[in-house]
Amino acid sequence: MVGDITANEVELLNAYHLLSPVARKEHHDYMRYLLCKQYKREVMVAVFNNKLLHNLFHSLLHIVEKEDMDLEQVTKRVFQIKELYYAIFEQVHCKYSEHVEDLDSNELVKEFARNSFNNLDRAIRGKNQDLIRYEIINFYQEFNKLSKKKDARNIVAV
């Protein structure tokens, strides 16, 4: 149940109660540091290891590989990727922002998306198929690079 408190939580509350005001502030600052660190790692994993995003990218790459690329289909797929990308980011961000005051949004994740989607939008509006292909391939390669970064890797215990 939501209202149940475990023995471990009671122990933590009792220990916290014994701390001096200065120690409580240090503890609070350290908890904030740990939560921010965990947030950055979790948002990287959530966004860059999302199987649906990878599948959408692969289908987008197949669309642009065709000689007679359908611009409407490309636009729809880019929109789907954009919506999913930001939804995943927001979900993790909201989860942590409820518990951490002034949580800094993960700028690497946001800036990457902002720049990539702006470049794609500009290319699509220009209707230059070669530029669209270039921007999609570049976006996908950078996305893959970020998915291989240490903070974005999913660690699976064997």
Quick overview:
This protein is mainly alpha-helical and about 160 residues long. Helices cover about 75% and strands about 0% of the residues.
Q: What is the total number of structural domains?
A: 1
Average of the residue pLDDT scores: 87
Q: Give the biggest beta sheet.
A: none
Q: Could you say which overall geometry the principal axes of the C-alpha atoms support?
A: elongated
- DSSP summary, beta strand count: 0
Helix content: over 70%
Number of helices: 6
Task: Please explain how this structure is put together.
There is one protein chain. This protein is mostly helical and 158 residues long. The chain has one domain. It contains 6 helices and no strands. Helix 3 packs antiparallel against helix 6. The longest helix is centred in the first third of the chain and has 28 residues. It is elongated.
Give the helix/strand layout.
Blueprint: H1 7-18, H2 21-48, H3 51-65, H4 71-97, H5 107-126, H6 129-147
What are its keywords?
0% strand; 158 residues
